[in-house]
Amino acid sequence: MRDALTYRRVLLKLSGDAFSPPALESGISPEATALLAVQLQEVVGMGVEVAVVVGGGNIWRGRSAPHMDRSRADYMGMLATVMNALALQDALEGVGVHTRVQTSIQMAQIAEPYIPLRAIRHLEKGRVVIFAAGMGVPFFSTDTTAAQRALEIKAEAILKGTKVDGVYDSDPNLNPNAQKFDALEYLDVLNRGLTVMDATAISLCMENHLPILVFNFRREGNIKRALLGEPIGTLVHAAG
User: Fold this and answer.
1) Which among 7, 48, 59, 87 is most buried, taking Cβ atoms within 10 Å?
2) What is the CATH number of the domain that holds 148?
3) By residue range, what is the domain housing residue 138?
């Protein structure tokens, strides 16, 4: 099975929506976290080293609080990602997958501090490492965190889990004629203003030739399909 894998070490980027009930945009759903845990259990069993960056939008979005100081609102968002990380850790441990949560803001009672070499060592031992609290500073998104962490741990790709099955030229929920892309170059994403990841994250990936696969994580088995190289989602890659 290992010989058939397209990627052996990946970073999975999950928005806060991944933790909420499918029909809602807020809260933490036991069913949603269980779905993620089962999928990750399967790929870890295949010998894949998996790190995860979680968002916190199902609990709090700093940019959606214009009445507050932006820095303070962003720190609240970082704390929301820690709650999601602990929920995912609990679900993973419940199915026998060993995990470590690392945070950019020190909170020693519940998580390790973020240390890249320690994270790599955990991955080599077959543990899932969940990165929380974003970059630990305001004004940076969890997309940018995902790109930064992926590069630091030497991941071979970013798997961007979304609620749709790839990248479209317009919102498929609003436009029934929206066209899906099977593959895109980084500059196409930036020039078209497509909502794959924010511009800082795309630029980091482009400069370091780090591929991004955008796919629907809610379809059970899709994480495994992505790792086996099956044609799902949209691949964002370097030119040529």
Assistant:
1) 48
2) 3.40.1160.10
3) 2-237
The total of other beta-carbon atoms located within 10 Å of residue 24's CB is: 11
Question: Whose structure tokens read 């809610």?
Answer: 218
Residues 89 and 122: beta-carbon distance below 8 Å: no
Taking CA atoms, 24 is separated from 58, 143, 214, in Å, by 9, 22, 21
Give the count of beta carbons closer than 10 Å to the beta carbon of residue 185. 15
Overall domain count for the chain: 1
Alpha-carbon distance 141 to 183, whole Å?
Answer: 24
| Per-residue pLDDT tens over the stretch 167-180 | 998 888 888 888 99
pLDDT at 6: 87
In the predicted model, residues of the chain with pLDDT beneath 70 are 1-3, 240
Q: Is 36 exposed, middle or buried (0-12, 13-18, 19+ CB in 10 A)?
A: buried
Cα(71)–Cα(139) distance, integer angstroms = 7
Cβ partners under 8 Å of residue 13, min gap 6: 52, 53, 142, 143, 146, 158, 159, 160, 161, 197
3-state secondary structure 166-221: CEECCCCCCCCCCCEECEEEHHHHHHHCCCCCCHHHHHHHHHCCCCEEEEECCCCC
Return the residue matching tokens 């591929």. Answer: 211
